[in-house]
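During the no-cost extension, the postdoctoral fellow (Dr. R.K.) reprocessed legacy sequence entries with the updated structure-token encoder. One reprocessed record is reproduced below for audit purposes.
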Amino acid sequence: MIPLKAEYPVPGFTPCTWFIVASCALIWLYEAFLPPESLEALITFYGATPALILSGAHGFNLQTLAIYSTLLTSLFLHANFLHVALNMLFFQVFSRNVEALMGPLRFAVFYLVCGVAGTLTHAALNADSGEPLIGASGAVAGVLAAHAMLLPFDRVRTLVFYGVVTVVNIQAWIFTAIWLGLQFLIPITGDPSIAWLAHLGGVVAGVALTPVFKRPGVPLFDEPRPRGPWSQPAA
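Re-encoded structure tokens follow.
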């Protein structure tokens, strides 16, 4: 189930969305040209390693500052082309309307906080893991949750693989509910390398923070209107 396009119109340019997409794409291109040993060193240094993050909580110095910084740097690293492509496809389908309803600066903070929450969730429940976590999935999950809360009835053009490949239109809240349900199948039938707990942590953060980060006057669970609810003051 891959989202292709949200139907609700986006007003104007959304700079934060495209900055994040461009940053992740350019960093992945840099990764792609590194020799294997340099790529491994990069991921080890900038990826978020659960055991280090949790052990760093017992003190604070320059070393722990470097460890905690990986909660942010890890969001911009990806394992391969498919990883970054799917994350950024999901992201830009839902993020542009969310950014418009939050404002670029609020949206940037929202995105990063959701990503950190996802990483911390993964770390807390994999405390002994020395495997670095990379990827924007937790942050993207938070954006997905925000879109479902702000524009639940927006229709999402979705590529579905079920016997045959087909494209259907699904309301945003239904898409998010199905996607969320699929996360619980990952530990049973999916790839063990997928950090599904980070996805759940991002969703929880997105649900909790959307009412705080949306612009004043923007309603939750709004019905889509032909011209869009873009008359709210730009706070």
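The longest helix spans residues 81-102. The two ends are 35 Å apart (CA to CA). The remaining legacy entries will be reprocessed before the final report is submitted.
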